[in-house]
Write a structure and sequence with these properties.
The protein is built from 25 helices and eleven strands. 47% of the residues are buried. A seven-stranded mixed sheet has the order 7-6-5-8-9-11-10, with helices on both faces. The C terminus is likely disordered. The protein is flat and about 85 Å long. With 755 residues, the protein is an alpha/beta fold.
Length: 755
C-alpha cells in the first residue's frame, strides 16, 4: 500500500515537474500560429479581394471578432468541470481540423457583390473555425494551469503568449514569406496545428485528479468583479492597442514612409506584455516609474513636424509607445483578479483591445482629417499612467495656486506656438520648457498632469495643426492623409501623402497643363504617350492605374478614350471634384473613373480594352505586390491589344523592383525596356522629378517604335537586368526582402555620407 502511494506521488511529482514547460510550449505554439496565420491569409486573399480599404477594415473586424469570440469561449468553457472542458476543447479541435490545410475556400467574388460585405463571410467560412479555436489557447491554458494551486501564479504565462506572438510576427516576413510558397506555408501551419493539438491533449492530462470531480469556481472565494474595475481593465487595454496603430500612422504619415515599418510598433506592443506580465518585476517597475518623464520628453513632440529629423523623431515615438504600453499593461497586471477569474480578465482585456483598434482603424479616418487619434490617446495615457509624485510638496499647495499654474500652461502654449505673441529665437522653446517644468510639479495628480501635457503638445505646432484643419487643406481616407499646399517659388500646388509627393501642378500662366513630377514629357511614360498618339489608330484607348492629381490626363489627344483606375475615392474628389487641381478638367474632362482595386477591375474588363496601360500605384512605404506578380501581368496582357504597351512606374527609394519585371518578362515572353529619367538643366518646366519607368509589350515592333520616338532624347531605353537567384513574384510566392536597396538609402540625405 505504501509502495503504491509512493509510486503515485512520484508520478504526480514528475508530471508537475513538466507541467510548467509544457504549458509554456503550448501557449507559445498557439500564439505563434495565430500571428502566422493573419499575414499568410491576407496574402492569399489579396489577389481575390483586392486592396480596397473597406475590404481590409472588414477583414480586421473579422479577426478581432474571432479573437474576442475565442476569449469568450475560453471564459464560458472554464465554468464547466475540467474533464468536460478538455473533452469539448479537443473535440472542437477535431471539428476545426476539417478546414485543414489552412487556406481560402473555392469561392469567387460575384461580379455584382460588394467586396466589403462579401469578404467577411468568405474569410469566416475559410478560416473561422481554425482562428477561433487557436485564439482560445492563451486564457484557457492558463486557467488549466491554475487548477493546481501549487504551480504558482498563472499570469506570467501570458508573457509567453505574447513572446509567441512576437516570434510569429517576425518569422513570417523574415522566414516564411521569403523562402516558402503559400502552399508550403499552409502545410507548415497545418503541421504546427497538429503539434498544438498534441500539446493541448498533454496539458489536459496534467489536470489534477481532485479538480476533475468539482467545478473550479465552487470552493474559490474571490471577490466579485466591480464595474469600475472591469471598466479600468478595458480602458487600460484600449489605450495601448490604439496607440500602437496611431503610432504606425503617425510614423508613416509625418515622419518617414518605409516598407515594413508597421512591424516595429506591433512588435514593441507585444513585447510590452512580455515585460509587464513577467515574473521578474524589476524591468516593468522601472519602466513604469519613468514613463511619465518619457511621455513629457517624447510625447510633447507628437504634434510637431518630425519629417526633418526622421530618425530622431521616429525613435522617440517608438520609445514612447513602448514605455506607455509597458506602464499601462503593468498597471493592468497589478489589478489582475484571482486565478478563478482569470478568463474574465482576459475577456475584458480583449474587449479593450478591440475598442482601441476600432477607434484607430475605423472611426478616426472617418472623423479626423489628420492623425488626431495619436495625441488623444497620449492624453488618455497621461491620465492613466501610474504616477509617483515628483515634487510631493506641490500636493500641499492651495488648490487655487495649483489651478492657476495649470491654467498658465495654456497661455504659455499659445505664446510658444506664436498665436498670441510674436516670439522668435529661443523664446518659443523657453515657453515649452516652462510647461514641462509645471507638468513635473503635477506628476502624481493625473488630471492636472494630463492638462499640462496637452498644453505641451499644442506648444510644438499643435495650434497650427488645428488651423490647417479649419482651412480644409487636408483630406483623410482609409488610405492615408493628403495635404494640399501652395508654394510661391515657383508658383505651384502640391499634393502630399504624409511625406510622399503625390502630384504637383504649376500655377504660373501657361504652365497649368504642363505635366510635372514623375510624368514629365521626356520621362518614360511621356515618351510612351507621344508614341501611342502616332502608332495606334484613333480613337486610341488609354488606361491609367493610379489617379494622383490627374497629371497624366494632359497627355490626352483629341479623340482618345481615357480611363483611370483609382482605389481611393478621396483621390477622385481631390483631382476632379475639388477644383484645386485642374489637369482633368482642362485636359480630359470626359475621362472615365473606375473605382476599386485595379487588378480586379481589369480582370472584369473586356479583352483588348486598351492600347496603352500605365501602372502607377506604388508608394515608397507600401508596395501592392498583387499588382506586380506574374498573374497580375497576365491580367494586363488580356486587357491590352496584341500590340499594346504596358508602362509600369517603379521609382522607389527603398526597393529595386526591376528584377521583378525582368523575371516576369523572361518567363512570359514580354519584350521589355527600362527608362530612367533625370531632369536636365535645360528644361524650363519647374517641379520635374527623377523617375524610372519600364515598358513591356508582346509586340517587339511596338517597343521598337517607342525607342525610335525617344531617340532624340539623351536618355536611352535599356534592357532589364535580372538578379541572380531571384525567381520573381507570383501570387504564390513574393517577398520584398531580396529587393531591399542599400540600407544607407533609408537614411536622411544628411546622414548618408559618401556612397
Amino acid at each position: 500500500m505504501t509502495d503504491s502511494r509512493t509510486v503515485n506521488l512520484e508520478i504526480a511529482e514528475r508530471k508537475e515537474r513538466w507541467a510548467r514547460p509544457l504549458f509554456l510550449l503550448t501557449i507559445l505554439t498557439g500564439s505563434f500560429l495565430l500571428f502566422l496565420m493573419q499575414p499568410m491569409i491576407a496574402k492569399m486573399a489579396l489577389p481575390r479581394l483586392g486592396g480596397a480599404p473597406a475590404v481590409w477594415n472588414s477583414a480586421m473586424l473579422v479577426y478581432q471578432a474571432l479573437l474576442l469570440g475565442g476569449y469568450a469561449y475560453a471564459h464560458y468553457l472554464s465554468r464547466l468541470r475540467p474533464r468536460r472542458q478538455a473533452g469539448i476543447h479537443l473535440a472542437l479541435f477535431g471539428v476545426a481540423a476539417l478546414w485543414l490545410p489552412v487556406g481560402l475556400g473555392a469561392g469567387v467574388l460575384p461580379a455584382n457583390a460588394s467586396p466589403a460585405f462579401w469578404a467577411p463571410w468568405f474569410l469566416i467560412a475559410s478560416i473561422g473555425p481554425l482562428f477561433f479555436i487557436v485564439s482560445a489557447q492563451a486564457p484557457l491554458m492558463q486557467r488549466w494551469y491554475a487548477l493546481e494551486s501549487a504551480r504558482g501564479d498563472p499570469y506570467p504565462l501570458y508573457a509567453a503568449s505574447n513572446l509567441g506572438s512576437f516570434a510569429g510576427l517576425l518569422s513570417y516576413p523574415l522566414l516564411f514569406e521569403p523562402y516558402l510558397t503559400l502552399q508550403h506555408q499552409s502545410l507548415a501551419w497545418t503541421t504546427g496545428y497538429a503539434l498544438l493539438v498534441l500539446l493541448v491533449a498533454l496539458c489536459a492530462l496534467t489536470i489534477p485528479a481532485a479538480a476533475v470531480e468539482e467545478k473550479p469556481e465552487a470552493d474559490e472565494k474571490a471577490p466579485p468583479l466591480g464595474r469600475r474595475r472591469i471598466l479600468t481593465w478595458i480602458v487600460l487595454a484600449a489605450v495601448p492597442s490604439g496607440l500602437m496603430l496611431s503610432t504606425t500612422t503617425h510614423l508613416t504619415t509625418d515622419i518617414v514612409a518605409m516598407p515594413m515599418l508597421w512591424v516595429v510598433p506591433l512588435a514593441l506592443y507585444l513585447l510590452s506584455f512580455v515585460i509587464a506580465f513577467a515574473e521578474r518585476r524589476g524591468p516593468a517597475d522601472f519602466i513604469t516609474g519613468v514613463a511619465p518623464l518619457v511621455l513629457l520628453v517624447a510625447g510633447g513632440l507628437a504634434l510637431h513636424d518630425g519629417s526633418q529629423q526622421p530618425l530622431f523623431t521616429g525613435t522617440l515615438g517608438l520609445i514612447l509607445l513602448f514605455a506607455i504600453a509597458v506602464a499601462l499593461h503593468t498597471r493592468m497586471y497589478r489589478l489582475r483578479p484571482e486565478p478563478s477569474q482569470l478568463t474574465s480578465f482576459y475577456l475584458f482585456m480583449a474587449t479593450g483591445g478591440v475598442i482601441g483598434g476600432i477607434f484607430c482603424a475605423i472611426v478616426a479616418p472617418f472623423v479626423f482629417d489628420w492623425a488626431y487619434e495619436h495625441p488623444i490617446l497620449l492624453i488618455g495615457a497621461a491620465a492613466l499612467l501610474p504616477q509617483t509624485p515628483f515634487v510631493p510638496a506641490a500636493e500641499r499647495w492651495p488648490l487655487l495656486v495649483r489651478c492657476a499654474l495649470v491654467a498658465s500652461t495654456l497661455f504659455l502654449s499659445l505664446a510658444a506656438d506664436g498665436r498670441i505673441l510674436d516670439l522668435d529665437g529661443y523664446w518659443p522653446l523657453v515657453g515649452s520648457v516652462a510647461i514641462s517644468l509645471i507638468a513635473l510639479l503635477f506628476i502624481g495628480n493625473r488630471l492636472f498632469f494630463a492638462f499640462c501635457f496637452a498644453a505641451l503638445m499644442m506648444s510644438y505646432g499643435g495650434w497650427g495643426r488645428l488651423v490647417q484643419t479649419g482651412e480644409g487643406v487636408r483630406t483623410r481616407s482609409y488610405f492615408g492623409i493628403y495635404t494640399i499646399g501652395d508654394y510661391q517659388e515657383p508658383r505651384s500646388r502640391k499634393l502630399s501623402h504624409g511625406t510622399t509627393l503625390h502630384g504637383v501642378q504649376n500655377l504660373a500662366p501657361g504652365l497649368e497643363k504642363e505635366p510635372t513630377s514623375y510624368y514629365a514629357r521626356r520621362s518614360g511614360v511621356g515618351h510612351a504617350m507621344r508614341t501611342a498618339a502616332f502608332i495606334y489608330p484613333q480613337p486610341a484607348k488609354i488606361g491609367v492605374v493610379g489617379l494622383g492629381t490627374g497629371t497624366l490626363a494632359c497627355f490626352a489627344q483629341p479623340g482618345q478614350q481615357w480611363s483611370f483606375f483609382e482605389i481611393d475615392p478621396a483621390m477622385v474628389r481631390i483631382a476632379r471634384d475639388s477644383g484645386q487641381f485642374t489637369f482633368l478638367r482642362r485636359c480630359a474632362p470626359q475621362a472615365k473613373m473606375i473605382l476599386g482595386d485595379a487588378r480586379l477591375s481589369l480582370a472584369r474588363a473586356a479583352p483588348a480594352s486598351f492600347n496603352l496601360l500605365a501602372i502607377d500605384a506604388f508608394s515608397s512605404d507600401s508596395v501592392p505586390m498583387h499588382l506586380l506578380t506574374r498573374e497580375a501581368l497576365q491580367v494586363y496582357r488580356r486587357a491590352l491589344t496584341k500590340d499594346g504597351l504596358l508602362l509600369i512606374h517603379i521609382s522607389n527609394r527603398y526597393l529595386d523592383l526591376e528584377p521583378v519585371l525582368a523575371q516576369a518578362a523572361k518567363a512570359d515572353g514580354w519584350h521589355a525596356a527600362l527608362y530612367e529619367y533625370v531632369p536636365a538643366e535645360s528644361e524650363t518646366t519647374p517641379n520635374l522629378s527623377v523617375s524610372v519607368w519600364i515598358a513591356l509589350s508582346r509586340d517587339p515592333e511596338a517597343l521598337l517604335a517607342l525607342k525610335i520616338f525617344s531617340a532624340e532624347d539623351a536618355h536611352v531605353w535599356k534592357d532589364l537586368v535580372s538578379r541572380p537567384g531571384f525567381s520573381g513574384w507570383s501570387d504564390d510566392h513574393a517577398s520584398i526582402l531580396p529587393l531591399l536597396e542599400d540600407w544607407r538609402n533609408w537614411l536622411p540625405e544628411q546622414l548618408r555620407g559618401d556612397q
